[in-house]
């Protein structure tokens, strides 16, 4: 298997003029994916669960360029990526949404998928734990599956393997 970058395996046109949901299925952590999507799509992240420094450290580590704001540093402003929908609503009492909404820690239900045009599900391997692969990213809508890739987070890069 040849490892590729997300920009090589992802069809960016798929996300144009569509609302997107990123569904984090435990025990996965989508920090790397949110930051990489921000870099590829040039979308600002507004974080309800972390400081902006958290995302900036990830971006520097992998060589990505991101713009981040956090509820801990300023009031909510419209942004391309809203991270985390559950925290925004239940902790900060802010009923907000972005172009891309991130649901953390299994808080996204199947009924939530109907609010979006595209769902990006970051999930563990069905076979269990592996030293070779960390998880899987599945991109789909109500009618079809667009992409299914496995990924591995390494020290200085994230690689994706087409299934």
Please characterize this protein's 3D structure.
With 163 residues, the protein is α/β, with parallel strands linked by helices. It has one domain. The protein has 5 helices and 9 strands. It has helices at residues 6-9, 31-41, 52-62, 85-90, 110-113; strands spanning 20-24, 45-47, 68-70, 81-83, 100-103, 118-123, 135-140, 145-153, 158-162. The protein has a 9-stranded mixed sheet with strand order 3-2-4-5-1-6-7-8-9. The termini are close together.
Offer a few descriptive terms.
163 residues; 9 strands; alpha/beta; single chain
The ordered string of helix (H) and strand (E) elements is HEHEHEEHEHEEEE
Main sheet summary: 9 strands, mixed
Which structural class do the helices and strands define?
Answer: alpha/beta
- What proportion strand? 25-35%
How large is the count of helical segments? 5
Sheet with most strands: strand arrangement: 3-2-4-5-1-6-7-8-9
Work out the helicity level: 10-25%
The best one-word shape is globular
Give the radius of gyration: 15 Å
Number of domains: 1
Low-confidence stretches: none
Total count of strands = 9
Q: How far apart, in Å, are the first and last alpha carbons?
A: 9 Å
């Amino acid at each position: 298997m040849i490892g590729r970058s997300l920009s090589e395996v992802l069809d960016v046109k798929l996300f144009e003029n569509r609302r997107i949901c990123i569904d984090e299925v435990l025990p996965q952590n989508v920090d790397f994916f949110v930051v990489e999507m921000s870099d590829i799509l040039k979308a600002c992240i507004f974080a309800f669960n972390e400081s902006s420094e958290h995302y900036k450290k990830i971006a520097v580590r992998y060589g990505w360029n991101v713009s981040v704001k956090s509820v801990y540093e300023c009031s909510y402003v419209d942004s391309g990526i809203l991270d985390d929908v559950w925290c925004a609503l239940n902790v900060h009492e802010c009923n907000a949404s972005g172009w891309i909404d991130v649901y953390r820690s299994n808080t996204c239900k199947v009924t939530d998928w109907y609010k979006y045009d595209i769902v990006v599900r970051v999930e563990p391997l069905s076979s269990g734990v592996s030293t070779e692969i960390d998880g899987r990213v599945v991109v789909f809508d109500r009618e079809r599956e667009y992409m299914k890739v496995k990924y591995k987070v390494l020290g200085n890069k994230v690689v994706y393997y087409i299934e």
